[in-house]
Write a structure and sequence with these properties.
Layout: E1 4-9, H1 13-24, H2 26-33, E2 37-43, E3 59-61, H3 64-68, E4 75-78, H4 84-95, E5 99-102, H5 105-122, E6 126-127, H6 138-145, E7 151-157, H7 160-172, H8 176-185, H9 194-197, H10 200-214, E8 224-225, H11 233-241, E9 244-255, E10 258-269, E11 281-288, E12 292-299, H12 303-319, E13 351-361, H13 366-376, E14 381-386, E15 395-402, E16 405-406, H14 407-418, E17 423-432
Parallel strand pairs: 1-2, 1-4, 2-3, 4-5, 5-6, 8-10, 10-17
Antiparallel strand pairs: 7-9, 7-11, 9-10, 11-12, 13-15, 13-16, 13-17, 14-15
The structure holds L-homoserine (HSE).
C-alpha cells in the first residue's frame, strides 16, 4: 500500500518530538500498520534552519495554510497550540476533507463542539489523545477499554508542570518561581505558564475527560478552577502530619444533582497510589461501575511522551482512513445524537471535607469561638490542632479537618471566622478527598 502523507503544523517541543518519533520508529510503525507514514509538508517559524526532517524530501513553509491546502496531505497534525490560528487551520483542514490529529487541549475544550460538528459533517476524524495527560492513553482507555462501564468518577493529576512544582517545593524546599522556570526550560509549561499554575490547563483536560466519561457536551466555562499558587510550605507540612499529600487534582463525578467538574489543590491520603505520583508524572484514577478503580500513570508533558500519543493517533487514523463512519470510534466516545443533557453543578452546591488553616491570637476562648461558628453552620470537625507558636510570638496556626460540608455552608462559616478580631488574615481552605 502507498504511504500516507501527513502534514505537520509546528516543529516546537511536541512537533519536533513527533517528527523524531515518526522517523526513528518508521520501520516498527510500518510493521504494525502495513503501510508507511510519510511527513510530506511541515510548517513552522524559522523552518528553513531546522534539522529534524530532510529538507530535500519534505516541503517546508512558514505558512500553515500551505500545509492544510496541500492536496497531497491526508492527515494534518496540529501542534502549534493556542486558540486562534490553530482553530482557523484546523477548520480549513476539515473543510478540505483532511483528518486532523491535535495535542491542543485548549482548542478542543473551548472550540471542540464547533470543530467536531464540522468534522462529522465532512466525514473526517479529529483525534486528540495527546491533549490529555501527555503520553498516557487515557482517551483510548475511556472510549474503548472502559466502554462497557458507567463511569462514576475521575480524579487526576493532569498538569505535569504543577505536579513538578509541588514535588520540588515539598522535597527540596525550592522556591515556586525557581521551579517554574526550570519547568519552562524543560518544555513542560504552557506558553503562558499561568495556565499551568492557575489550573486552566488542567480544566481544559478535565472538560475533555468529563465529556468522554458521561457523554455530555464540552463545557469548559462551567469548570471550577483554582490554582496552586497560594499553597504554603506550612500547608504541605501540616497535611503530611495529618497523613495527607497535597496534589492539584481535576475531579469529575456524576451525582444525583448533576456533574461535578472542578480543579483545585486537594488533600489526599498518603496511602493512595496517586498521592505518590511526583514530578512531571501524571496519573488518572477512573472509577467504573463494573471495573471499580483503575489507575493510569505516565509522563504528562515533554516532547517524546506527548509525541507518543500523537503518533498513536496518526496510526489509529490511518487504520480507519477509508472506513465508513459507523466503523469508527465516535470522537467523544458517544454517538453525537445521544449526548446527555445533565447539568454541571455550581461549586457552591458541591460537598467536600475541608482542611482549614487560620492564624489566631494565642489566648483562651478562641478555639471555642471558632467551634461555635462551625456548629452553627452544621459543620462537624474531624480533627483540630493548634501549632506551637514561634518563640515570643503571640499568634498560632490553628488547623482543622472537617467532615463533608456543602461549599456554601463552608463559605459562610469562613467569612464569619475571618471577621473575628482574634483571627489574622484569610482562612486557607483546601478540599479533602479520600478517593477510596
Ligand atoms: N503544560 C502541560 C503540563 C503540558 O505541564 O501538563 C502537557 O499538556
Amino acid at each position: 500500500m502507498s504511504a500516507v502523507k501527513v502534514g505537520l503544523l509546528g516543529l516546537g517541543t511536541v512537533g519536533g518530538g513527533t517528527a523524531t518519533v515518526l522517523l526513528r520508529n518508521a520501520e516498527e510503525i510500518q510493521r504494525k500498520l502495513g503501510r508507511a507514514i510519510e511527513i510530506s509538508h511541515v510548517a513552522g517559524l524559522g523552518i528553513a534552519e531546522q534539522s529534524i526532517v530532510d529538507a530535500s524530501k519534505v516541503k517546508l513553509t512558514e505558512d500553515g495554510f500551505d500545509v492544510v491546502n496541500d492536496p497531497d496531505v491526508q492527515i494534518v497534525i496540529e501542534l502549534i497550540g493556542g486558540y486562534t490560528l490553530a482553530k482557523d487551520l484546523v477548520m480549513k483542514a476539515i473543510e478540505n476533507g483532511k483528518h486532523v490529529v491535535t495535542a491542543n487541549k485548549a482548542l478542543i475544550a473551548t472550540h471542540g463542539p464547533e470543530i467536531l460538528k464540522a468534522a462529522n459533517a465532512n466525514g473526517v476524524n479529529v483525534a486528540y489523545e495527546a491533549a490529555v495527560a501527555g503520553g498516557i492513553p487515557i482517551i483510548k482507555a475511556l472510549r474503548e477499554g472502559l466502554a462497557g462501564n458507567q463511569i462514576e468518577w475521575i480524579a487526576g493529576i493532569i498538569n505535569g508542570t504543577g505536579n513538578f512544582i509541588l514535588t520540588e517545593m515539598r522535597d527540596k524546599g525550592r522556591d515556586f518561581d525557581d521551579v517554574l522556570k526550570e519547568a519552562q526550560a524543560l518544555g513542560y509549561a504552557e506558553a503562558d505558564p499561568t495556565f499551568d499554575v492557575e489550573g486552566i490547563d488542567a480544566a481544559h483536560k478535565l472538560t475533555i475527560l468529563a465529556s468522554l466519561a458521561y457523554g455530555i457536551e464540552l463545557q469548559f466555562e462551567k469548570c471550577y478552577t483554582e490554582g496552586i499558587s497560594k499553597i504554603t510550605p506550612d500547608d504541605v507540612n501540616y497535611a503530611q502530619e495529618l497523613g495527607y499529600s497535597i496534589k492539584h487534582l481535576g475531579i469529575t463525578r456524576k451525582t444525583d444533582d448533576g456533574i461535578e467538574l472542578r480543579v483545585h489543590p486537594t488533600l489526599i491520603p498518603q496511602k493512595r497510589l496517586i498521592a505518590n505520583v511526583d514530578g512531571v508524572m501524571n496519573a488518572v484514577l477512573v472509577y467504573g461501575d463494573a471495573v471499580g478503580p483503575t489507575l493510569y500513570y505516565g509522563a504528562g508533558a515533554g516532547a517524546e511522551p506527548t509525541a507518543s500519543a500523537v503518533v498513536a493517533d496518526i496510526i489509529d487514523t490511518v487504520r480507519t482512513i477509508d472506513a465508513p463512519v459507523e466503523h469508527k470510534v465516535p470522537m467523544l466516545g458517544f454517538q453525537t445524537d445521544s449526548m446527555a443533557d445533565v447539568p454541571v453543578m455550581a461549586i457552591d452546591d458541591i460537598e467536600t471535607a475541608c482542611y482549614l488553616r487560620m492564624t489566631a491570637l494565642d489566648k483562651p476562648g478562641v478555639l471555642a469561638e471558632i467551634s461555635d461558628v462551625f456548629a452553627k453552620h452544621s459543620i462537624s470537625i474531624e480533627a483540630v490542632s493548634q501549632k506551637e507558636p514561634a518563640e515570643g510570638a503571640d499568634k498560632v496556626h490553628v488547623v482543622l479537618l472537617t467532615q463533608k460540608v456543602r461549599e456554601s455552608n463552608m463559605n459562610a462559616a469562613i467569612a464569619e471566622v475571618e471577621n473575628f478580631d482574634e483571627i489574622e488574615g484569610a482562612v486557607a481552605r483546601i478540599r479533602v478527598e479520600q478517593l477510596g
